[in-house]
Amino acid sequence: MSVMKVIANIDRRIYYGAVFVLTAIMLLFPIGLPLKVSPEVKAAYNMIDSLEPGDIVIINFCITASGYNELKGACNSMISHLFSKPGVKVIFTATSDQAPIMMEEIIANNGELMTGHSSYPYYEIQGKQYGVDYINMGYYPGLFKWIAALSADLRGSLGNNDWYGIDVRQFLDSNGIMEARDIDLVLSFDSDDGAGDFMRYFYLEYGTPVMQSMIGVMVAGAKVEYNAGNYAAIVPSIRGAAEYQFLADYPGFALTQMDAFSIIQFFLIFLMVLGNIGYYGYTRNHKEAKK
Amino acid sequence: MSFLKRKEFYVVILIMVSLFIYVPYFFQVPQAITNIETWLIDTAVVIGAFAVWVGFITSTRREIVRIQRRRRGWFYGIIILGLSWAMVIVGLGLGKTHVIFEFLQRAFVLPGDSTIYAILVFYLTSAGARAFRVNSFESALLTLGALFVLLKQAPLGELLIPWAVPISTYLENYVAMGATRVFSVSLAVGALVLAIRLFMGQELALVGLVERAVRREE
């Protein structure tokens, strides 16, 4: 059997095995490859860093479990950075039914239980207390319909009680949160297009800046919106999360994943070349000979 | 109640609703109209939430039939029914933040969904070797584009082959953006055309009247 025939007929299970082994090695023994910070992630960092006391931020989770591992790095580092800004008030919302559980996990990762409490939602994150500095409103069905309703009638669409049934009117009233134009920033973590709807109903209507961190398959579309100025900043997938963790000096898993990410991308390029060598060296000739 | 059977009744509703939704988006209108718009959107959210039940009941019926007739994979139907009904009963009975409800999500939904997504990487690599065959000018362009974008995406690529970065940035910022904007503009124009057709009472498919209209013409 010729070498070309071997290359052209490599069993796909060998590819699968190689991906598994390479990923495992790079995750277990990261080598710390250098990372260049992109302008869009730098813009996201600067935008959060420039938040002033009294600013109101909506953090929306439009994440499903499938995209969670890809977005976890960005969620942790960006929320940690945002909560380090003094006086900033936060409203957590979710437009995916699976998201509340992940939101709780991120909050717990970055905070600790408040004194005298033993369960959700009473977590303190970087000195910010639940009910005083932030609230978790949980899941709202309807996605774009709910975001449109939120834009038209913020208080009515948010409701009076949070995800746990606690009355949050005091929080909303004391921080002057009455209508959509009172929101100073929207940050959406997306495996569906939550930020796109916030952009349409908040940015286009009130000029509220919208930032998005999204899964890999959404990056191309998000970059178009960012380049067009519709998104104030974007943090694309694990790569963006790693860049953000580097900027925010957040020792997270996304930075570690970057080595595996690099190696697998190169392995993919290698396979593309190998596939073409096999095609031209054997498959194509074999097909022509058959004709 | 005979008016409920009349096509005109639904057409009027369609025209009114589309007017109340579209017009306040593009123009300054009195608060009373904005309030109606808000009420309509809120109603859509509520109806959407209830529509989940339609999906759930349909899924239950489908699985019951599959199990009764012992169709291929009927055993999985039992698991689907068991888990989905467990979620509903626990969720409604104990509450959405109860530890058992959260356990069901953490134990079944999250790992299952994550696993399915993670498996993609294996198919992607296999496809990389098989799909990117340079056997025409178009496929050569596609492969070259993919190569440059991959090199830019990987931090190692940026380090080893820095000249690939501006090419990839050009592809992303101009070629991809141009193509995506074609879709965006087409979509926006399509939405406007749909709005106009709704105002004119021409878009009857939305209220399920197309079939009846065709029959009458026949």
Write a concise keyword list for the protein shown above:
heterodimer, A: 291 residues, alpha/beta, Rossmann fold, 2 domains, 6-stranded parallel sheet, B: 218 residues, mainly alpha, 3 domains, 8 helices, 82% helix, extended
Our Rg estimate of chain B from Cα atoms comes to 26 Å
The run of helices and strands of chain A is: HHHEHEHEEEHHHEHEHEHH
**Per the principal axes of the C-alpha atoms, what is the gross shape of chain A?**
elongated
**Mean pLDDT over the residues of chain B:** 85
Determine the N-to-C terminus distance of chain B: 27 Å
Shape of chain B: extended
Q: Ranges of chain A with pLDDT <50 over ≥5 residues?
A: none
**What is the mean pLDDT of chain A?**
91
Q: What is the count of β-strands of chain A?
A: 8
Largest sheet of chain B: none
Strand content of chain B: under 5%
Number of DSSP-assigned strands of chain B: 0
What's the main sheet of chain A like? 6 strands, parallel
The share of residues in extended strands of chain A comes to 5-15%
CATH topology of the largest domain in chain A: Rossmann fold
What count of structural domains of chain B? 3
Number of helices, counting only DSSP H or I runs of 4 residues or more of chain B:
8
